[in-house]
């Protein structure tokens, strides 16, 4: 995390672009691509949440890309178990040293488990966004909603385009 923040601040201070011309590297080099990981077997929303669907349970968290942009996470607000979440609606918030951001549910369903470790250790979102930093487990009410989410390749392209626009 410290390395990522240092690299980003150094690149900004030196006014380095996040891409290098094709004459130097092919394909184009992306700083965010070097530091963010996108895992196979997950689906991704354009609001940067991920979903791992196994049987009748979907685990939801925020992507490595998202936590990298947030910076150090200091507080997480999550729903209670047995509550419901709706696709494209907020179900909680992540507060970092930079800002507070809503967490948008990529699918609808009943919350069957909440990662209570995040209450005392919100930094797990930074250090382990796909493993220890998961947020909620949901029993999907409409599994077909998963089909509208991006696969890892599409999400990587989406992040690269989003970063290039900023």
TrEMBL record:
Required cofactor names: (R)-lipoate
Domain of life: Eukaryota
GO biological process: glycine decarboxylation via glycine cleavage system; protein lipoylation
InterPro entries named among the record's database cross-references: 2-oxoA_DH_lipoyl-BS, Biotin_lipoyl, GCV_H, GCV_H/Fam206, GCV_H_sub, Single_hybrid_motif
Cofactor binding note of this UniProt entry: Binds 1 lipoyl cofactor covalently.
Residues modified as N6-lipoyllysine: 98
Keywords recorded for this protein, A-Z: Lipoyl, Mitochondrion, Transit peptide
Pfam families: GCV_H
Compartmental location: Mitochondrion
GO CC annotation: glycine cleavage complex; mitochondrion
All residue ranges annotated as the Lipoyl-binding domain in the record: 57-139
Chief location category: mitochondrion
PANTHER family, alphabetized: GLYCINE CLEAVAGE SYSTEM H PROTEIN, GLYCINE CLEAVAGE SYSTEM H PROTEIN 1, MITOCHONDRIAL-RELATED
Function in brief: The glycine decarboxylase (GDC) or glycine cleavage system catalyzes the degradation of glycine. The H protein shuttles the methylamine group of glycine from the P protein to the T protein.
Subunit description: The glycine cleavage system is composed of four proteins: P, T, L and H.
NCBIfam families: gcvH, PRK01202.1
Similarity-based family: Belongs to the GcvH family.
Name by which UniProt lists this protein: Glycine cleavage system H protein
Origin species: Arabis alpina (Alpine rock-cress)
């Amino acid at each position: 995390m410290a390395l990522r923040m240092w690299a980003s601040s150094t690149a900004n201070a030196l006014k380095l672009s996040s891409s290098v011309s094709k004459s130097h590297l092919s394909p184009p080099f992306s700083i965010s691509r070097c530091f963010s990981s996108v895992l196979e077997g997950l689906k991704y929303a354009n609001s940067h949440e991920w979903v791992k669907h196994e049987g009748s349970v979907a685990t939801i968290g925020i992507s490595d890309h998202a936590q990298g942009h947030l910076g150090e996470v200091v507080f997480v607000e999550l729903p209670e178990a047995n509550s419901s979440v709706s696709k494209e609606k907020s179900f909680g918030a992540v507060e970092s040293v930079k800002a507070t951001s809503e967490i948008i549910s990529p699918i609808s369903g009943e919350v069957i488990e909440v990662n209570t470790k995040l209450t005392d250790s919100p930094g797990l979102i930074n250090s382990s966004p796909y493993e220890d930093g998961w947020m909620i487990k949901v029993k999907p009410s409409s599994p077909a909603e998963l089909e509208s989410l991006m696969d890892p390749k599409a999400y990587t392209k989406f992040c690269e385009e989003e970063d290039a626009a900023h």
